[in-house]
Specification:
homodimer, mainly beta, Jelly Rolls, eight-stranded mixed beta sheet, 4% helix
Chain lengths: 118, 118
């Protein structure tokens, strides 16, 4: 087994596109992903997985049908399975995501960004 | 549903004991936990869950039978299911842990710290 830690800063330094998550590790059938975000994503939900967001840098807004959550560095929000949400970042933000392996980021395989490992 | 983020710094400010994880949230049948650690924990393994460690503050050493991993802030290591490990921190460190709900922290319910929610 690898005895190297996953250094999120190093992983994030390898790309610059927004809303294109990169798989950086695995945990109990889930993908660990990092992503850079800026602007507004689409409304979506995931029918079979909770959606874990942790802000590493910057600020993230997650709009829900009944409110909005604001997240800064070191803050986590878990969107429950099936709950519609729309992430937004006014300035570039960096996130750690955890999703069941193979989850399409838009909730729909037809529009999802391809998963890439780094 | 709650629209409040999980602020890890605030959660960590509510207690001071070492090696007593606190449950701060839930994700796909897993507990999200924060813990303060200092000194050396026991050798253990988990027969039915990977063990997710992310350092929030300080430095963590995870000794494995075939090596040692050193983790600083923003770094993650996943100990695979069944792999023996012994965490250690020479100075106090603060961690985010993710484990399948109900996992005993020592790998054994007889010696495990009780799980407390905050």
């Amino acid at each position: 087994m690898s005895s190297e830690p996953i250094r999120l800063v190093d992983k994030l330094a390898t790309f610059s596109e927004h809303w294109k998550p990169r798989v950086v590790g695995a945990f109990n059938g889930h993908d660990l992903l990092v992503v850079k975000v800026k602007g507004e994503f689409v409304w979506h939900s995931h029918p079979d997985t909770d959606d874990f967001f942790m802000v590493l840098k910057g600020k993230l807004f997650i709009t829900l049908r009944d409110g909005e959550v604001t997240l800064g560095p070191g803050e986590i929000f878990v969107v429950p399975t099936g709950v519609e949400h729309r992430p937004r970042a006014d300035e570039e933000a960096e996130l750690l995501l955890i999703e069941r392996r193979g989850t399409p980021n838009t909730g729909d395989v037809k529009t999802a960004a391809p998963r890439r490992e780094i």
